[in-house]
């Protein structure tokens, strides 16, 4: 099973032939710029398409603090995305209050553990919308 750095490397090398499908769902690669370091960080994340955009969830397994990649995109919303062989720049934003219920339902349908993660924390777990620029 691919995970972490190895997942990113195999995904990039194979244009997602290895790594796009993961544990019964699908993943993309999100590259953010470190808010303090200025370095690029790439994370494989479960996603679902939403029109021309893509949805991801900043769950960190239900931890009380958000994942580093989310803090990075809050500081600099211009990100790089790879979906299979498609690499593009996107602008990341947190789903609005009006959008979130439908987006959450869609994401929890693809990865049911998201509902468990939300129950584990008082933090409101955001759904992030990645819009191609």
From TrEMBL:
This is Nitroreductase family deazaflavin-dependent oxidoreductase. It comes from Actinomadura verrucosospora. Belongs to the F420H(2)-dependent quinone reductase family. GO terms for cellular component: plasma membrane. It comes from the Bacteria. GO terms for molecular function: coenzyme F420 binding; oxidoreductase activity. Signal peptide: none annotated. Pfam families: F420H2_quin_red (PF04075). It catalyses: oxidized coenzyme F420-(gamma-L-Glu)(n) + a quinol + H(+) = reduced coenzyme F420-(gamma-L-Glu)(n) + a quinone.
């Amino acid at each position: 099973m691919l995970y972490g750095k190895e997942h990113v490397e195999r995904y990039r090398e194979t244009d997602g032939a290895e790594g796009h499908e993961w544990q019964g769902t699908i993943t993309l690669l999100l590259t953010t710029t470190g808010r303090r370091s200025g370095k690029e960080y790439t994370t494989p994340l479960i996603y679902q398409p939403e029109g021309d955009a893509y949805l991801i969830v900043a769950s960190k397994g239900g931890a009380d603090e958000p994942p580093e990649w989310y803090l990075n995109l809050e500081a600099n919303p211009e990100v790089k995305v790879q979906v299979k062989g498609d690499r593009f720049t996107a602008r990341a934003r947190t789903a609005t209050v009006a959008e979130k219920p439908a987006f959450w339902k869609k994401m929890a349908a693809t990865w049911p553990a998201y509902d468990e993660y939300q129950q584990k924390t008082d933090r409101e777990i955001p759904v992030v919308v990645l819009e191609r620029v």
